[in-house]
Structure formats: structure tokens, C-alpha cells
Batch of 2 targets.
Target 1
Amino acid sequence: MSDVSQLLDPAAEEEYEIESTEGGLWTGSRLFVGLFTMAWSGVAFAYFYLRAIDRSGQWDPHHLTPPPVIGTLIALCVLLGAFMLEYGRHQLRRGLRFEWLTAAWLTALFGAIAGGFQIWQLTRLPFYPGEYGYTSVFIGFAPLNVAMVLGGAYWVETIAARSIRLRVEVGPDVHLGESEHAAARHLRASLAGCNFYWWFMVLVSLLFWILFYVVD
Amino acid sequence: MSHVEPPSEHPGDGRVARGANMPHFARLFAIWLLGTAIVEPVLYFLVWPHIPPGTMTDAARGAQFDALVLTMMASPVVIAVLEYFVYAMVVWHQKKGEPPEDGPPIWGHVGIQAGWIGITSAIVMGAFVFGTYELINTAGSGGGEGPSPIWTPAETNDMLTVQVIGQQWLWTYRYPQFGGFETPELILPNHTKIAFHVTSLDVIHDFWAYQLGVKADANPNVDNVAFATTNETGRFTVRCDELCGIWHGAMYNYGYIVSPTTFYKWATSTEKKLSPLTKILPKFAWTYNPSANGAGGGYYPASDAFYQVYKYEYGTSGKEGNLPAVHVKPSGWKPSQAGSHHVRER
Amino acid sequence: MAATTMELGAGATGYRPTATRLAHPWLSLNVITAFLGAAAGYGIGHWIGNYIASNYAVVQNTGQNNVAVVLALFFGVLGFVAGIGGLNYPILKIFGRQPEERAPVQDWTKYFRFSTDHKVVGKQYLVGVIGMFFIGGLFAMAIRTELTNPNTHFFAPDIYLQIVSEHGTIMMMMATSLVVGPLGNFLVPLMIGSRRMAFPRLEAISFWIFLCGLMVILTALPLGGFDTGWTGYAPLQTEAAPGMDAYLVGFGTIGTGMILNGFNQIVTIVNYRAPGMRWSRLPIFVWSMLATSFLLTLATPVLFVAGWFGVLDRTAQTAFYVNTHGGSSYLWENLFWFFGHPEVYIMAIPGFGLVGEMLPVFTRKPLFAYRVGAAGMFGVALLSFFVWQHHLFVSGINPDMRPVFMLTTELISIPTGFIYLIGMGTLWRARIRFTVPMMFCLAMYFNFLIGGITGVYNSDVPVDVTIHGSFFVMAHFHYTIMGGLLFAFFGAVYYYTPLFTGKMLNNTLAKIHFWWMFIAFNFTFFPLFIVGFLGMPRRVFEYAPRLQVLNDWASASAYLLGMSFLVFAVNFVWSVWVDPRPAPANPWQSLGLEWQLPAYKMPWYNFERLPIILSDPYHYGEREALPVAHLQGVLALAGAGAGGGLAPVGAVGPGPGPETAPPGGQADGEDQRR
């Protein structure tokens, strides 16, 4: 019962490990979003909690918000980036390398711009950090938002760079969208996770955009 | 093969017949019954009167009784588990000299598992129901209920209001029904409902009147209310029970429950004696904003802030007259108001 | 860069070493460069901080301000991680490169490097957590020294509070990683038949960050310490000395390590199980790691955010926790305990898992009600997210929610009870072997019984009004964490040291350690329940003289308890390094997959060929049972080493039968060298 024939043959074993890595990227990206969700719920909890108890009447800054145009631009950049990445992924599936790469770089650019805007906005606030509960929560939110969008940009950038390098490593004619090459499959898995993360960023951006600029 | 199967699919133990379980069950049950029969009366008759925090107030008495009930519920469980482990160690160990063997492959037992879940659930629900009853029955059982308590004593007209102010590292007390004088002494009348309004001037403290069974966090800008009805005269300890800085360990003093007439005498004379000081104290309020700029480095009423809280919690009229009953409007308190509130015996 | 399959990091061959070219050990990154990086980072951060905010010195003319301290610590951690080599991969990725999957350094210096071998990381963690435990333990000795007398003082009150706070924080941090770190990283891939953790570099980083966290916390002492205890309640937190920054940054740092570790464990367990390792065959320890990791991954971000708010309050002058500016000190209490209570179960569940793993081996029976046990751990994990306000029963918030939180808290005792069900069911008509690990397991059940039952007292609001914040609570959680987790951990250390090192620990010393620790532990903490019930608050340096006798008793016992670990340390050093005795393969005759492997001498990629899992590892007492896995060809160690160190499992009893022996295991040969 214990002969070698009952083990996986090397090819099946290789396939098994590739699938493990693919699955790991899938699980990892979802879990990543899960842990970010918990972190953002901490911020959202602070927002709602302080707003609700309003201990000393100091929650409300009386229609004072951070520059709303910049804030809207940030959310818009994230939204555009997510759509762009979705588009790029579609092009990758079709085998259009140039379109995919352009979309990916644009996505990374949108992420970087969103992060930059967020930092710029922090320098143009019409209030002091501790003036109100609202302002405190905003100051807490903004750097985390920078980290989130720059992280998204970084992720896309690494995938784009990787797909360029794969042309060198695997061969220039490889159809990354369909190749069964392990590297290509892992690239696609990572891209799927990244795409998921970008849509999550859209949700977060919209939620906090509404909380900070729309809700009175 | 799949993992946990019903016992029938694991014929397993061929060495010992199925009925071999019964003697073990019988012995274990007998020992358990004996242990429980000994321990429970001991708890009820001998231990109960000595369970902290004593019987100085209804809250303390409730906590004491609750602790007794929990102990009486927990004891059979503890006895069963300990007894089982000792029994297993004595009876079911690998004997010296015997060839090492494996035990019978028992993978589970639906009845035992279901029974276990059922029994533990029943015990837990029992503890929960009783704890909740006790919590409501003694008006929050002496715990701080925040600015708008939901469990209050039935009658609140005759309640004595004591404001407890924590600051680093001292407790002081204000008696709004006696002109709002402030003193480091905590004197309470017997047979009286007391509403402790606990607040802080700086960091979080915790007002723990140990023998009264009262504990409430002293948060800055929060009026944390706890109730207790006094029941015995005597001395009790007040400690700070939340880390509040370096002298936290030294932040304690003693309070006294005295007869209502003694209390009234003390309160009125202290009110008179301290009246010059009371005048320069900040006006009585439920919370205070500490400020380094206040007179004498003191503090002043957080009036604005207070009314913000007030508006949020009680509506918009914002006048003290509309305060809920527990926020007694500072007016007189007479010893005749005490005396009718004997805490019922159990 | 040459294109090879290997560099693409894929495929079965990808994880095995081919020709490796190692840099000179002294020129490549190691812990020394890490410390240089940390020092540089600290300096840079401090300089930037003073550049920004030198006008806001905490004490005039000290040059010490909170911005500088926070940035110095942050950059110090960053410098450390860069210096150990943790940033190489993220930077390479920017250029689209994958790191070479090559063999890590093989000589002893691998323990001082950024190693992607999960077995090395496990050992690094082991030394790390034990060291951290001893440091925290010294603080505990100091606390007990101060409390030998109610009003004569050994320490100034501020020093005393610094000691208390350091003890609490270090122990809490240590305990969160105590099992997941060393045993989780070492054992999980072996138990599930994987060649590696899912993200080996994250795994390595998680350890070095964990170490950074400890160092950051210790820097609080030269910065003036922090006097808030490990809970760091807010108004005090906001106004505390710069040592508080070390607490906040330290928790953030170690929290990051916890998140990464848990994240890695989950992905590994979900995706890297060997063929045939169904969920129903997963060892119970792996289940406990999975449940714990979910808590680590999902609860810790909340602490991270709470600490971030605290840092902002102290540096950017926000007002999250400042009541008068629209904040609330309750916000910290809520966020902290929303993390803090799951964290308590982060410390309990691994102990359950270890005990569940060891009991079948020493009772020679299958684990009773395996599914119920796994479900119990997940039940505890899930419920732990809904109980946090039981820490705030007297705080004045949400009185209407008290019955709810009382209910959820008491409900947790149901799934916790499952752990007793599986334990007691496994003991039923067992063949108990009183080995040292088994004694630790039984002691864990005893201690946790007391810890758990007293937990019900805490959850009951009327009783909690008396015992909240008192020594009763302190004794309660020492019984659950130290009595539960620590006992299970030390049992596991005795149990797994042969697997980790190939050496047996001295049995006599081990027994002395056990009895000494067990008795001293109970002598120390049981009186403290009484002390607490009699009215002694936590974290005080003065107490009622009537409590002195009990306190002195506890202090004396605490010294003994502290000394018992010296026995362990001596035993460990002696048996592993000074006078090593080779352990027999599988000395406990376990059926677990990890015990069929000579883990201590396996290559970094574990398996030449992936094992095929055939059954769960608990088929004790079944003659016809299948072996746990196919292992022939799986272990191709140099020459005779293959299965050579493995004794047939069935050799000791009729038990599972000879088939369970790893196929091809030559019981003679290398085995004879003992």
C-alpha cells in the first residue's frame, strides 16, 4: 500500500502547488480586505460614536469641512482607478498587452494622485485638529486613507512591473491572459485580488466621502 | 474514512463490554451526589453570612446573595469536573507492569454531547436570568448607570443626593440638599436611599464604597449615578478602583453610616460651618470642567457642556426643574424622610 | 536575471533548492545590521520630530517631545526591519522581480537572520517569547516585592506603576504570540503537510516586528515609563509622560506582527493543506490556530486604529479622547476592549488546541467529539466579538446593554465547556500515561476550571460591582492565561522539544518543574481571589493592613513560582546544549503527521514529495486504522537519514498496528545510535 505510485506524480504535484499559491492569493486578498474592514470600522465607529454622544457639544464644526473639492477629487480618483483596473483586466484577458499595461499604469497613477491630493488637503484645512470631534476623526481618517490608496497604487504597480518583466522571463509572445505558465497564473490571481481591493477602496472612499462632506 | 462517526460505526472496544460503562457512571454519580450534598448546605448556612461585601446596603446584600447563588450553582459543576479528573487519573491510568495498551476508540457519543450542551446551556441561562433579576431588583445593584439611569428605586422623593467628585488623588463629596457644601468626609444616614452622583475633574477614577456594594467610574464630564439604600450603621472604606496616576494606591478614605438624626445634625452644622467656603466654590452642577484658570486653580461648573448633554438626553427645555427624578432638585432633606426603608431580609 | 522555473517561484521544484550561491555571512543582512538600521532610524526620526515640533517639549529644555519620540520609534522599527532585510522583497517587487527561492543560510547564523524557513522562524519565536516571558516575569517579582508590605515601600509610586504597566503590557503581548508564534509557525505546515507557510517573508517579518515591539515597549522605561497599566485608559493616557508613546507605538508594532502572523496562518491552513487533508482530518491544534488567527487578524486592526488615535491625540493635538473637545474617553474604552476581549481568547484558544492535541496521545484514545471541540473554538472566537462591554459594567455607559453583555459573556462558557467535554470524554476509560506533558495538560484543566468559573462571577453584574477592578479579576485572568495557556505551552514545550531539536529534555527536572510550578502557581494566585473579594483594588501600592498575611503568602509563592522557571531554563539549556541526549524518534508514540517526520533535520522545504494524507491523526486503539499519510519518497534526506530515525509507531502497543509506521522506515540503523 505504500509504494511511490500512490504519491502524486511530479506534474500533478506541481499543479497542486500552483493551485495552492493561487488559492492563497485569493484567500489572502479577501482576508486583507477583511482586516482593513475592521480597521475602517474602528474609524467609522469613532465617527458615529462621537457624533452620537456629542459629549460637550463640540462634535459639530458648523458646516466646516475640509476642502470639499479636493475631497471629491480623491474619491473620484479612486473610483476612476477601480474602473480603469477593471478595464485593464478585461484587456489582459483579451490578450491586449498594451491596453492592459496602460490601464494598469493609469490606475497606479490615479492611486498616487489620490494619495497626493489627500496629503495636499491636509495642508489646507480650515480648522485645527482638536477643535471639534468631527475634525479629530477627519485627521485620524486622512493619513490612513493615504496609506490605503498608496497601498493600492503600489499593488497595481508591482503587477504591471511584473507583467513587463514576464515578457523578458517567459517570452515576449506569451498571452498573459490565458497562459498556463505558473507565473502568469499567479499574476492573474494577484490581479484579481488587487481588483477586489480597489473596489473595496471605492466603497470606503464613498462611505467616508458621504460622512465627511454630505452628511451634515 | 470520515472523521467523527457515530459510535456505532466504530465498533472499537472489543475488550470491554458496553455495559462496562455503567459502574463508572454509578460511582461517579454517587460521589458527586455526596459531595454536592455536603457542600451546598455548608455554603448556605456557614459561608453565606461571610461573603463580601456584607449587608450594609441593599446593593451589598444583593451582591452577597448573588455571589452565594452563583457559588451554589458553580459548586456542583466544580465538584463534578474535579471528581471526574481525579477518578480518571486513579482508575484509568496505565498500570505499572501491564503491557502498554491503547484505550478503546470512542469517538463521541451523541447523547453525552447533547446532554452536555443542554446542561451547560441551562446553567448559563439560569445564571443570566437570576443575575438580570438581581440587577434590576436592586436598582442597578450599586453599579454606576451613567447620567440617565434606567433602574431606579421606586420612590425617589426622599432620596439623599451625594455628589462624589474624584480628582487626582482625593475624593470629595457635595451635598446639594444642604446648600452644596463640599467636604472630604462621607457621612450617610441610615435607612435612606442614596443616589451617588459620581464625576471626576481630571482622569477616570472609580468610586468603590466597598461595604456599600457601590462602584461607579468617575469620568470627567460625566454624571455617573449609582443607588444604594443604607441598612446598617458603621464605617466603610472608599477606594479608587481605576488606575488614575501615581498616587492611585493612596486614594482612599473612610465613610460612615450614622443614624438619620446624627446625620442631619452633622449636615446642617457643616453646612453652616462651611458656608463661607461654599460661596466661593463653583455653583453646584452635575459635572465640572476643570480649568487651571479657575479661581484658586479650581474648577467651574460645566454649564454649557452640561446643558448640551442634558439636551441630548432629556429633551430641549434645558432647565433644572425638568430634571428627571433622580436628579433631585437640591432642596432640603429631613431625617423624617429616612427610617421607612428597611431593606427586606431574604 | 536568468529565467528559470525556480525564480518564478512556482511548481513543485520551485520550493526545492537548486544550486545556491550564498553571500558571505558577515556581509549579508543579519541582526547586527538590523540594530544599526534601528539606531539610524531612531536618530533620523527623532531629528525629524524635533524639526517639526521642537517648540512642544514635554519638559522644557529636554528636547523630548511626543512627535520626536513617536517618529523616532516608528523609524527605528522601520530601520530594524530594513536592516534585517524585510524590505528587500517589497522593493524588488516595484521592479517586477520575484525573489529567488533559494535555500536560506544553513549554519547557526540562520537564527539571527531573516529566515523564510518556517521551522527556523518557529525556533526564533520560541526563544523570543520565552525571553519576553522572563522579562515580564521579573517585573512581576518586583510587583510582589512591593506588595509584601501594606505601607512600607520598596519603590516610589511612579516606579511601581511603571513596573506594573510594563509587566502587564509585555505579558499581554507575549501571550498573544506565545503559541501562534513558535508552535503555530513550526507545526502548522508540518501538520497539514505543506512545504512552507503561504507567505514566508511575511512570516519572517512578523517575528522581527514582534521583537521590535518588545524593544519599543522597553524603551518606555528610559522615557519615563507610562503609568496607565496595560489598558491605557484615556485621559491619563493623553497626559502621560513620553513613555506612553512607546506603549502606543509598541502596541501598534506588535499588533502589526500579530496581524501578519494570523493572516499568514489562515491563508496557509486554508490553501496549503496536502492532498487528502480534508477539513475533517485537520488536527485539533490546527483548528485552534485557525480560530485564533481569525481573532488576530480581525480584532487587532481595531487596536491599531485606537492606538493611532491615541498617538494623534498626543502629537497632532486631536481630541478623540478629550471630553471637552468633542471626543470621549469612552471611545478608547470601547475600541480598546473591542480588541481586548477577543485578545483574551487569542490567549486561551491555543491552549485548548494544544491540550486537545496532546490528550489523545497520552490517553491512547481518539479525541472525543472532535467536531464539537473545533466548533467550540470557533464558537468562543465568534462570541468574543460581542462581549467587550463587560469590562465596562460600572463605567456608566449603556446601562441598558448590561443584561445583553452579561448574556453573551455567560454564553461563552458553553463553547468553552466543549473543551472540557472533549477532555473528559477522551479520559473516559483511557490508558493515561503520566508523562510530563500530560501532567501539564491535566493541570491546565484544573487551573482553567477555576479561571473559568470565576469568570462567570465577573460576568454577573451584581457580583461584578464588587469585584470589578479588584485583585479578584487579576487572579481570574492569571488563572486563565497563565494557568491555562502557560501550562499548555510548557506542556507543549516538553512535548515538542524532541521534534524541534532532536533532544529529549531531562524527565526528572521536568517533573520537578511541573510540581513546583503547579503548586507555586496555585499558592500565588488562589489567595489573590480572596484578597480581591476582600476589597483590594488592582495596581495599588498600598492596601489594608488586614490583607498583609495573604499578600505576603502570595509574594512568597510568587518568588517560588519565578524560581520554578529557573528549573526549566536549566533543564532546557542543559538538555539541548550542554549534555544533549538524542531523542528517540516519535518518543510519545503519537500518530500525528508531524511526529512521523524528523522535523529537526528536515530541509527547509520539508518534503521532497508532498505527502498524501490518508486519515486523521487520532486513530488510537484501532488496529485496522490507516496510517496518517503516505510518506515514502516524501522524505529524501541524505542517504540513510530518510525514514531512518523513525521508530514504528505500533512498536509500543497493539495500538494502531505496524502499518502506521512510515513506509520504508528502517527502525534499525540510525535508531540504534542511542
Target 2
Amino acid sequence: MKRDQFQKLCRDTLKGNDFSFSQAVLPEVKKYLKKENKEKLPVIWLETNDSGDNNIAFMNTTYPYLDRVFEDIIDLWYSNTFMAAQGINALDILEKTAEKYAHEYTLVVEGAVPLKYNGLFNVLGYSKDYIIAAKNAVRWFGKHAKYVVAIGTCASFGGPTAARPNITGSVSVSEILDRAVINVSGCPVNPEWFVGTLAHLLMYGMPELDNLGRPALFYGFTVHRHCQRRSYFDNNNFAQEIGDSECMFSLGCSGPRTGADCPYRMWINHVSWPVKVNTPCIGCTNKDFPDGSSPFFTPLPKKSGSKKEDSGKEQDS
Amino acid sequence: MSKKYIVFSPITRLSGLLSADVVLDEGTIIEAYASSTMFRGFEYIMRNRHVTDAVYMTQRVCGICSIAHGAAASYLLDKIFENEIPDNAQYLRNIMFGSDFLQNHIRHFYLFSLPILSGCRINLLFTGRT
């Protein structure tokens, strides 16, 4: 499969009831691995300051299911959530992986990186002699990685962890690394955005990024553009209260300034998404989430923290 | 009569970061400390926000039990605004909360507990591959 075809497949997913996207991806990856005699993508997954929601969301991946991702796409060497090893064994694996796959592994960082008090707000592991602060670990492993993927809005832009007053001094991964970082934002991330990015890295290398460093495949259009309630908006037909079937712009929907493909990819095995269950989009893929979207139920022009230049997406009305 | 100080860090297969320090005295644990080595200050983040934001913001506290936080926040809002919610709404909340329990248990058992029960030889991971 050519790169263009792959990108088209990602974009055109879910026309009607055809859930062919991921089912089409796996055989292609397998064929590619066989043909090119390539190894799977070695991955080190560091969990820093976040709620762990992104690895939970990642477990919800369907077609390919989680086991197929581990079997066919990635070699997950270190992950606080998934690995069997514990204690010093886990840190041993981390060290050996970084040695063996230096400049080959993909670093996945989940969560923002706190800088205050020498980064002691987040410690990945410690012993009597040393403390591995997330700040130092991300810097060191980021330096020797082939790709750095920031998963979730915390890692990509700071997100809820760096929301005001940000007493931990948390910043995004790209802020402390002097290199290209792929921001797969979302709070939590849609598993297909993440697995799709990994598959793209394995097969074609760096994906095309938008101006915020997010894969344009998934974040290219605003939620508003493909929203099922778009015609209500165009006809100035707005909801009065939560539960109404009209456009929820009046109830604080952030769709017009949020780049994501939720309306047609949807969530939890393509079942539903916020607007379909009568709750406005809160703009979780945005750079200024959550302060830029709050108060969540205030209409967009009146939001207190709203800064248009930070949203990364032009308002398309 | 020698005391032994054991640092067990990191403890894996859970949501978040955890470490444990244990003091052994001739094979008996006499002191134990658990430390959660991650701090975000969510209590501070929640301050000075609109009260209806709580339903969404508190769900960011934890990834695996987000519905519990969301449900607690919505009950709080009901109290504040003196809402009478219809029976169906209550059923719906219970179903959501129940399915959250279910996914929690399944995830915990199969992904977080089973590797230990199955006796994974964890320290041999690298042999034969390097």
C-alpha cells in the first residue's frame, strides 16, 4: 500500500456502516513487516503527570484489538501500566532497552512534565542512591529516541495538569525537548488516533503534522465541520437547554475551534460521541484546554479564557 | 538482629505511579511506607471554576474511574440546584456507574493481576533477544 492510499484510508474511514479502517490496516502492516523483514516498533512508554486516561483509552482500541497491537505493531518494552516486571527489574529493562535500541526506539510520553522543585512532583522510580524525576527521564530518553510521541493533551500542550494555577509548573513535552514531537492530543486520546500514528511511524515514518504538531490525518478538520447538527447551526437553530436536539453552540460547544474527527470516527468502537449524547464538545484536543474552553457551558464568544490565537484552528463558521 | 531496608520502586500495572519502602527485621516487616510519586494539585485546579465545570473537570482526576468522579460531581450539582431528577435519569446514571465498575474489574483482573498469577518470568525478558 502506498503512503497516499494509507492516508486516504485513514481519512475516508467509516463511510456508512463500513468499519473497514483498522481491519484494513493490520494485514497491510503484517504484509509490510514480512516483505521488508522489519522489526516491530520498539516503544518506551513513560507515564508522567496525568490521570492515566490515555493508556485506558488505548486499551479500548478495536480492530486491531490491544493484543494485536502488541503482537503485530509495537514491541512495548517499558510501560508503567502494561509491563509484567516490577521494581528494579522494570528499571533494568528500561535501561537495557534504551541501550539496545538507541536512536531506534519510539518514546511515548503520557502526561505533562512538572518542572518546579527540580521535577520532584513526578518521580518515575527511586532507590536509596538515585531519584528518576520525570523531567530528567523525558529529557534523556527523548534525546536518544527516533520519534517522540506525546499522547494526550497533557503531554501535547500541558492540558488539565497545567491548568491554572499550575502549582506544579507542568509543561508540555515539546517545551522541554529540542526536537520534533508528534502531538497526539485529546483528553483522553481516541485509540485510533494513537494506533494510526504508530502504524504510520512504522510503515512510512513521520506523518504530516499540522501547525500544532498533530498528525493532520486525524486533526485536519474542525469538529464543527462534520457535525451532525451542523445544519441547525447554519439555520440559526440553537438549543435552549441540554437535551434539545438543535445545535449546542448556545450551550458552549467548542466544536468550531476544535480540530478532531470525532463526528465521523466516533468513540468506543465507533458507537457514539459527545454531541450525539447531548453534551457539547469541550475542545479537549485544543492547545488551551481546559482553561480556553471553560466555563464549558458558556457560549464560545463569552468564554473567559478563550484566546483565538492559541486554538490553532481558524474559526470556520 | 540486622534490619534491612528494601525499596520497591516502581510498582507497575496500576493507574498512576506508586512505590513502596519496607523495613525488614529478621524476615518480619516492621515498617512499611507507600508513596504515590505523582502530584498534580487537582484541588487547586478545581478552585475558581464555574461549578458546572466540575462534572467534566473531575473526570480528569483519574482515567480508570472517571465515571465515579463525574457521578459524584453531578450529585453535588443536584444538591446545589435542588434538582429533582426523574427516575429514568437515575437509572441511566446507575447503568453508567455499573458499567464503569464492570470495565474496572475486567481490566484490573486480566491486565493488571494476571501477569503475576501466571508466573511470568519477568527478569528473563532480555535473554535470547540481545
